[in-house]
Design brief:
By secondary structure, this protein is α/β, with parallel strands linked by helices. It has helices spanning 11-24, 35-39, 43-52, 63-71, 87-92, 102-115, 136-147, 169-190, 201-206, 337-343, 348-357; strands at 6-10, 29-30, 32-33, 57-60, 77-80, 96-99, 119-124, 152-158, 195-197, 214-215, 237-242, 245-249, 254-255, 261-262, 267-272, 289-292, 295-298, 308-311, 323-330, 333-335, 360-364. Helix 7 packs parallel to helix 8 (169-190).
Amino acid sequence: MLRGPAADIDLSALDHNLNIIRNVCSNSRIIAVVKADAYGHGSVRVAERLSSSGVDFFGVAYSDEAIALRRSGLKGRILVLFDCEDVSNFFEFDLVPVISDMDSALTFASEAEKRGKKLSVHMKIDTGMGRMGVPPDKAADAAVRIASSTGLKLDGLLSHFSGADPADRDYALDQFRLFTGLRDEIRKKTGLAPLCHMANSSAIFSMPETCLDAVRPGLSLYGYSSLADNFGLRPVMKIRSKIILIKEVPAGGHVSYGRTYTAKRPTRVAVVPVGYADGYSRLFSNNSEMLVRGSRAPLIGRVCMDISLLDVTDIRDVSTGDEVVLLGSQGSDAITASELAARIDTVPYEILTSLGSRSRREYIC
């Protein structure tokens, strides 16, 4: 028996979500974010599908992710958001670095000059995220220096919202105004019109006015919104397993480590071969449900490394081998990453990357 859960990745849902995003920001270029193995969905297959749908620009966190995409045959442009360490990779694999400081810019410029090449770069401005980027008061001068370099071509400017939901709207708009003001100054001083992008998934839907030359959708591509409205997006990932054993526990009996669950009645318990080693958080102990025969079965006791236990007493005709859905739909019900995230006080991103990265993937075209 193969351990752990399986992930069904519905590529038609990916197409559907891409079209919704395109309808919202029809005048913006799509930079599809496929970092963290496409949020657990498998970056190579996801990028291939997006490429076949006309996307020609992708975003990753680190150069090793970009190299894997190149080696798979991906032809589009690849923006590397955080990694400027091994500069040779950017030339050998035709990657676009994000410059967050002048030291990195000078390193890339020196390498480009040695190779007799001109490297396309995007410069990041820290407008309030407080993480990476050139400080606003130094941004215009830095852009001029990059633009005047013989080894670099300033092809893009970007920033990142610290939050783009209604609670953060005023701060986000302040960030946006700061960015567009600097964009205008940089355009005037350099005579260039670099591709400008700031909007992530949340901003695309909550503040469409921030959709500039390009947008960087991530979570929304995979079917989720961090806002109250899901905007018709369809989850791309379904996580499933199966029951490997059914047992009876008498009233007053205990299950799993620490005896945190005591049966109040004779209880039929289904054993599912999924645990925290498979990305199903221990915080779901006595605090979640899975779908069995279209009904919700409460998770009882502590989630173990390899096993979780369900109370299936009230579900008829459950038997060994039945499908169990941890994430996704079965019958008329569905468990979403947003629901699971709320149960353990985290975000859908963590649910998707944790479960998706440790499941056997099957792609549905």
